[in-house]
């Protein structure tokens, strides 16, 4: 994929996967993880990019992207990762402390090429009380932008939000997530 936001596209090979993303300054706009032989691409929407930023010095440490690779191997899917906000930090507190900088100059959702994508998973987890209305507005906007894709239902938190991939692993939900992805992709 080419740069969509005027940033730099980085590519690495890790764990048998090709990982590409676009970064510009403190922002990571999208990430694609592909592996030869997988038949479908699923969009996953999370809260904000974590440790993956810049040239990928922390790529191997990004637990969320690793969990997606494990799930992707089990379900035979590739990933297009986008976030509600593209300010890159592994700290939700840092995102909230820099709330005015949560987005780059424009948003990536309108420029995404979704032709290779079959489904979408919302996996942003719960929101802190800070900026809750902003989160709700962004979720609604992203759902509209990705409405052409079949939504894969995954387990929800006690608050009713879709569970984040870290908690897929912590709460032993990975088999349930794989089953949901597999059923959706086969039915698409």
Description:
With 188 residues, this protein is of the alpha/beta class. It has a single domain, classed as Uracil-DNA Glycosylase, subunit E (3-Layer(aba) Sandwich). It is 28% helix and 24% strand. The chain contains five helices and seven strands. Strands 1-2-3-5-4-6-7 form a seven-stranded mixed β-sheet, covered by helices on one side. The radius of gyration is 15 Å and the shape is globular.
- Counted up, domains total 1
Structural class label: alpha/beta
Let me know the average pLDDT: 90
Content of β-strand: 15-25%
Second CATH tier, the architecture: 3-Layer(aba) Sandwich
Describe this structure in a few short sentences.
The chain has 188 residues and is an alpha/beta fold.
Secondary structure topology:
Blueprint: E1 8-14, E2 17-24, E3 27-34, E4 40-46, H1 63-75, E5 77-83, H2 92-97, E6 117-122, H3 132-145, E7 150-151, H4 165-170, H5 174-187
Which structural traits does this protein have?
7-stranded mixed sheet; alpha/beta; globular; Uracil-DNA Glycosylase, subunit E; 188 residues
